[in-house]
Design a protein that fits this description.
- The protein has three domains: about 1-35, no CATH class; about 65-235 and about 350-395 and about 395-425, no CATH class; about 240-340, no CATH class.
- About 40% of the residues lie in helices and about 15% in strands.
- It is built from 18 helices and 14 strands.
- It has helices at about 5-20, 20-35, 55-60, 65-75, 80-85, 90-95, 100-105, 115, 130-140, 160-170, 190-205, 225-235, 250-255, 290-300, 300-310, 320-325, 385-390, 405-425; strands at about 120-125, 145-150, 175, 210-215, 220, 240-245, 255-260, 265-270, 280-285, 290, 350, 375, 380, 395-400.
- Strand 1 (about 120-125), helix 9 (about 130-140) and strand 2 (about 145-150) form a beta-alpha-beta unit.
- Helix 1 packs antiparallel against helix 2 (about 20-35) and helix 11 (about 190-205) crosses helix 14.
- The longest helix is centred in the first third of the chain and has 17 residues, at about 5-20.
């Protein structure tokens, strides 16, 4: 049996014992054949060494037309798209030698400042595909003082799970969630994935100061030091979208919903009112919250009852965190008065371009300029032409990015952040 196959099987066996999961055992059987295959490997050793180096990132970030047009033409080229794609199997092979993997992929293996070392962060990373996106996100946000919980959807392809598990095995502060779930779009399990990581992170370390949840198609807009300074300035407050629930979305929480054939469907049964007559607020699935907020989510009786009540709603991730944020007594929260309403553009958690809110630069009704990429579920998948606007915003992260759509956008943003982080050392 090849050494790679033996080491990965051994790792899976250990994980199976720890988790006691029937699912893990079935996955183990499936992987026995996958890892016996041979592949033709290629090295990706330098952030500047890939095909994207043809682009002038400095000019792209300044919005220069010629550079943007060249980038656009490249992303439309089939050969270019193929050349930048890294297969899942690359990561399984590359992580046989973790030291070399971290060196070749340019991971930061020591804190860049005492300020950052003294202010560790906790991340929940919920992913289900696109390993290359995940690995580049992890590299962009990785710091040895931080802690990372990774949740891979149980219905993900075998190669996705195997590659991500191989990557996490190279880092002592990056781990797979202990209780993975099958995530259903707009269903409760999307919340449960984050809840399970919250619990693991809270129990794993008492040192971290703030919690941030991300998905595989997010990317940071700030260096770790910039994030630390912005979070310090919050002085224990949380930052997330939290507004009154729009009238058009009230059926999401007033009728019982159930999962049928992998999709959430509304029933005719009306739900009981929220516990404690809590006002329901609308927000984002993505949040930036202090450690005390996470403790309340895991232990506060009011929140535990709200969680139970929300399990048969539609897209509970878009109201649960926002509602908890407005509950008096929750650390870092704000009161439910309208004075404290916060939009996604004013919260620092996540920058998103919604199709309906885009418009020409001269339009007074547009919230932001038109998307330079494409749209998925009414959300802009960013192109290189969005970068100049993006890095001028106050948010910590932006969504969505996709290497299959525009690898240059990620490449240039990654390069910009690394150069900025290193410049902060001086």
């Amino acid at each position: 049996m090849p050494l790679l196959q033996q080491s990965r099987l051994s790792l899976l066996l250990k994980l199976t014992v720890v988790l006691g999961s029937v699912w893990m055992l079935s996955l183990l059987n499936e992987l026995r054949t996958d890892w016996s295959l041979t592949y033709s490997w290629w090295e990706y050793t330098d952030v500047d060494g890939g095909p994207e180096k043809e682009c002038n990132c400095s000019a792209i970030l300044q919005g220069e037309t010629e550079a943007l047009e060249k980038a656009k033409l490249l992303t439309l080229t089939k050969d270019f798209r193929k050349s930048v794609d890294i297969p899942d199997e690359y990561y399984i092979n590359a992580t046989k030698d973790c030291r070399n993997f971290k060196l070749s992929r340019k991971y930061l293996t020591f804190p860049l400042s005492k300020e950052e070392e003294d202010f560790p962060l906790a991340y929940s990373m919920v992913v289900h595909h696109k390993v290359q996106n995940f690995e580049r996100l992890l590299r962009a946000i990785y710091a040895p003082q931080n802690i990372y919980c990774v949740h891979v959807d149980k219905k993900s392809e075998t190669s996705v799970f195997a590659a991500i598990m191989a990557i996490t095995s190279c880092f002592p502060n990056v781990f797979m969630v202990t209780r993975p779930v099958t995530v259903v779009y707009a269903g409760w399990t999307r919340v449960q994935a984050d809840l399970n990581c919250m619990s693991d992170l809270y129990n794993a370390s008492a040192e971290w100061k703030y919690f941030i949840n991300v998905c595989g198609q997010d990317f940071p807009l700030k260096t770790n030091l910039e994030m630390v300074r912005m979070l310090r300035s919050l002085k224990g407050r949380n930052s997330m979208m939290s507004e009154p629930l729009p009238a058009g979305l009230k059926r999401r929480v007033t009728y019982v919903h159930q999962v049928v054939n992998g999709e959430v469907q509304e029933t005719r049964q009306q739900k009981e009112p929220p516990p404690f007559n809590l006002p329901i607020f609308y927000g984002s699935a993505y949040i930036v919250v202090c450690r005390g907020y996470i403790r309340s989510v895991l232990e506060d009786d009011r929140i535990l009852k709200l969680i139970e009540w929300g399990k048969d709603t539609y897209s509970p991730d878009e109201f649960l965190w926002a509602t908890i944020q407005r509950m008096p007594g929750v650390p870092g929260s704000t009161r439910p008065h309208g004075k404290y309403d916060m939009s996604d553009m004013n919260a620092i958690a996540r920058l998103v371009k919604w199709h309906a809110l885009e418009g020409p630069q001269e339009s007074l009704n547009a919230v932001y300029s038109e998307c330079n990429g494409n749209h998925v579920r009414e959300v802009c998948v960013y192109g290189a032409g969005d970068l100049q606007w993006m890095i001028a915003q106050p948010h910590l992260f932006a969504n969505k990015f996709d290497i299959n759509t525009d690898p240059i956008a990620i490449y240039c943003l990654e390069k910009y952040l690394r150069q900025k982080a290193l410049a902060e050392l001086h």
